[in-house]
Amino acid sequence: MAEASYDLVVIGSGPGGYVAAIRAAQLGLKTACVEKYPILGGTCLNVGCIPSKALLDSSEHFALARHGFAAHGIKAQVELDLPTMMARKDKVVKDLTSGVGFLFRKNKVEPVFGTGRIVGPGKVEVAGPEGARTLETKRILIATGSKPAALKGIAYDDRRIVHSTHALTLPEVPKRMLVVGAGAIGLELGSVWMRLGAQVEVLEFMDRIVPGMDKKSGLLLQRSLEKQGMKFHLKTSASGARVEGDQVVVTVTEKEGGATREETCDVLLVAVGRRPYTEGLGAAEVGVKLDERGRVMVDEHYQTNVEGIFAIGDVIQGPMLAHKAEEEGIAAVERMAGLPGHLEYRCIPNVVYTWPELASVGMSEEDAANDGIEVAIGTFPFLANGRAKAMGEREGQVKILADAKTDRILGAHILGPRASDLIAEVATAMELNASAEDLARSVHAHPTLPEAVREAALAVAKRAIHV
Ligand code: FAD
Ligand code: NAD
Prior knowledge:
The chain is globular. With 467 residues, it is of the alpha/beta class. The strands form 5 sheets. Strands 1, 2, 3, 4, 5, 6 and 17 form a 7-stranded mixed beta sheet that branches. It has 13 helices and 22 strands. Bound molecules: flavin-adenine dinucleotide and nicotinamide-adenine-dinucleotide. Flavin-adenine dinucleotide binds at residues 11-17, 34-37, 42-44, 48-49, 52, 115-116, 143-146, 164, 185, 277, 280-281, 313-314, 320-323, 325, 353. Residues 151, 180-186, 188, 203-206, 211, 237, 271-274, 319-321, 351-353 line the site of nicotinamide-adenine-dinucleotide.
């Protein structure tokens, strides 16, 4: 049965899809958003950014109470209540996912529950709990996101051999946890369980952790995590795993020499990236081109090769980040509405929410060297920042890269307390094409952590005050 025409049907209600749908409705487009699960919000709200940050915050409180309070003159006896910690996390998720429903009602976006399949340009068939219906629409926006990748030879059993989704709901703290992959998920969820008492060891294929990020900052983060008890095995992977009783026997493989050994653990977390999700979507069947990694190919307006079909977020190329998906969704629908929607890719921040946190935006030193760009670098340690000292935070630094000729800020890499919040100032400065001197001349409240950002900007011109 054909239904009333829409201006836009968005498939997927993650941060890319739901934000695009709201912006489209704000711009006067009659919009529906199709979601295969009965809850809105996608990976990010349900099994990604939000539950992981809820557990990171709770486990950080627990670790502080156990190891950090004494230095502040606070004596506490601490006991873990994991069910309550998990219930708090679930409530945070529920509040935020139902918030998306509220925003849809407010903006008159129609949610349609069921699996969406493109059956032709302008036609989306939705197989839902109440049968199938076909939505007719002027445009389709694919925002179907991504799913955890798997490792060859290792099958998930969702209890002891898990990906991120199940690592967010473990019923008890594992004694020993092996993690494959020292990227954002491995380090964040590894940190959660380490803080709650697990012995965590991370196997990483490359010769350093967070290989996509600034090398020196990654090394500093590795040292911090090692001090907290996390162990790393670099140039190492896992090539097999089997459950024996309540243990997992993992075949650990060294990259060089290919030597293998067996290790046992209570839980094996595989965190080696995510893959674009287009199964059952019908995109390829109607001629939409996918690249060699299964990502939907789009032009600079997020238009696929099929007229009227667009795509954004994790399912297209670029970093798999919620804020990238959101901004692409906004830019795509603004373009549809005739506005000059645009996203400045070089200004997208990337954060790993360990403690200390690692945040970066723009070029690393290695990127600048590869592109033959001469840079001036300013660094400032948190050890010399008054507020960090008052908080008892001694680790990490702010590093700012500026073009050696023009002083234009090209990148920043912050390892330290609340680096996730501190990076926003540099990202905004980069959006405004600011120079390091612009940052250095801006007045920052004292005593605050952002003063470390200003001092690093001063250090670009070799005139930091407090080191
Ligand atoms: P998704 O959020 O994946 O949403 C896609 C939606 O489409 C899903 O709801 C799915 O059910 C639906 N769908 C798929 N196919 C169909 C279909 N055929 N019909 C109907 N619906 C369909 N990013 C950050 O920026 N910061 C973080 O702190 C962060 N933490 C993370 C922690 C974890 C543990 C994980 C796994 C990811 C994290 N991410 C983080 C990444 C972030 O979650 C993703 O980049 C983001 O969710 C991508 O948004 P999206 O809208 O493209 O896709
Ligand atoms: P990732 O790509 O960030 O990290 C995967 C890590 O696994 C890399 O270090 C890689 O070298 C390593 N690896 C790959 N194959 C391996 C193998 N066979 N053996 C050992 N190591 C191997 O992926 P992720 O951590 O799984 O996260 C998935 C996506 O979700 C990422 O794109 C990430 O940006 C996003 N995410 C973001 C956040 C955040 O913004 N804080 C948090 C979680 C997830």
